[in-house]
Amino acid sequence: MGDEGSFVREIQQNLMRAGVSLPNYGADGIFGEETERAVMRFQRSYGLAVDGLVGPNTLEQLNQVLNGGSNLNDFPLPSGIFQQGDEGPEVKQIQRALRHVNFDPKGIDGIYGPNTEDAVRRFQSMYSALANDGIYGPNTRRYLNMELDS
Question: Which InterPro entries does the record associate with it (predicted)?
Fold first, then answer.
């Protein structure tokens, strides 16, 4: 808290790229309350110690998220049916997986909104066996898992 400079700005930019919003100040290079809350949300999402500090574990997890690292294996794709209007950690994992296979849902916020639906539709359009309906279900899950494993 209180740190300033290019490293803080880089952390803020990376948090936003990882889907954590900084709506008031963005990447202003000042580690204030908004940045601390964003770090804590990120830490909570990935099962890290929630202390608001950007230490080695938080940095490593942030790098894994941004570089498509093995963190996807730690959060298997959810079963069930998800569609526009759904929210929660399962939706975040669907969004992470879509981003990992280059169908960017324009943010990892845990909200199955129009951008997530569009990313699912674009993914589904790659396979004739999938209904191109923007709804994540068992068939879409199976094909997404195949892409993640390849």
Answer: LD-transpeptidase_YkuD-like, Peptidoglycan-bd-like, PGBD-like_sf, PGBDSf
